Amino acid sequence: MSNSIVSINQLSKTFHTNKDQVQALRNINLDIQEGEFITVIGPSGCGKSTLLKIIAGLDLDYQGEFLLEGKNVKGPGIDKGYIFQEPRLFPWLNVERNIAADLNIRDPKVREKVDELINLVKLTGFEKSYPRELSGGMAQRVAIARALLRNPKVLLLDEPFGALDAFTRAHMQEVLLDIWKKNKTTMIFVTHDIDEAVFLGNRIVILKPRPGSIQDIVPVVLPIPRKKTSESFQEIRLQVVNEFEKIEALQSAF
Ligand SMILES: Nc1ncnc2c1ncn2[C@@H]1O[C@H](COP(=O)(O)OP(=O)(O)OP(=O)(O)O)[C@@H](O)[C@H]1O
Ligand SMILES: [Mg+2]
Fold it and tell me: Helix 166-183 and helix 108-120: axis angle, to 10°?
């Protein structure tokens, strides 16, 4: 009996449009243990967002099996935090109210948790700031804090740092790892960036397109903090690059 938090068996997904149909995912098998940090990487259109949306409960129209803590998922919910590429904050609410959202910030328990999270995502001093006054990285940290306040079983992140400059992105990776070390929230993180996938993940799921399926799963057995310039880091990076080359070779054979 597995104690996986996410259990995916022979999962397939086909989109039906007026004109034709697109098989976005075919026969995905993936078991994720509680507390894992999974990064998902693959070329554009290989089904990364489709997979994440199914895990989020935002898309219930698939074939095969997907279980969260051994149970079927009937829809989205606070047990699955979802972070998009852009922060999607409420422009009329300040930072602390954006984090609290529908919860009452005057409730001492909520207040205490919001303060704790503001500290965790390193936004102390910006509690009363409005989204327009924040940088992209800061806004994304508000979105992460908002998701964490709900104590999600899994945090799903779809290229959350894609719009950030390289420097801010590196900083955000550190912040996220810090959060993961402290909270041990199970993370499923989609990225286009190989360095990011190796830096964050304890397993890298490499997807290939047409139809989206798993090319390989690369374990990353490196201590944290990781150094992107270290030899062991570069070795794993190369492993991922090699898999990408195999995918490209397959693509050009069409
Ligand atoms: N709502 C939809 N209707 C029809 N086809 C869709 C829909 N959403 C996605 N697709 C198709 O499914 C495939 C996978 O799309 P998906 O968005 O999951 O890719 P992705 O890996 O997230 O790509 P990217 O890296 O560009 O974000 C693509 O071929 C896409 O055209
Ligand atoms: Mg996508």
Answer: 130
Q: Which residues of the chain have pLDDT under 70?
A: 1-2, 254
Of 17, 22, 208, the one to substitute when testing ligand 1's pocket (max ligand atoms within 8 A of C-beta) is 22
**pLDDT 10s digits, 159-172:** 999 988 899 899 99
For residue 211, say if its preceding peptide bond is cis, omega within 30 degrees of 0.
yes
Judge: domain 4-79+154-252, CATH 3.40.50.300.
yes
Q: How remote is the CA of residue 47 from the centroid of ligand 2, in Å?
A: 7
Extents of the domains making up the chain: 4-79+154-252, 85-151
**pLDDT digits 0-9 by tens, 66-94:** 999 999 998 888 788 999 989 999 999 99
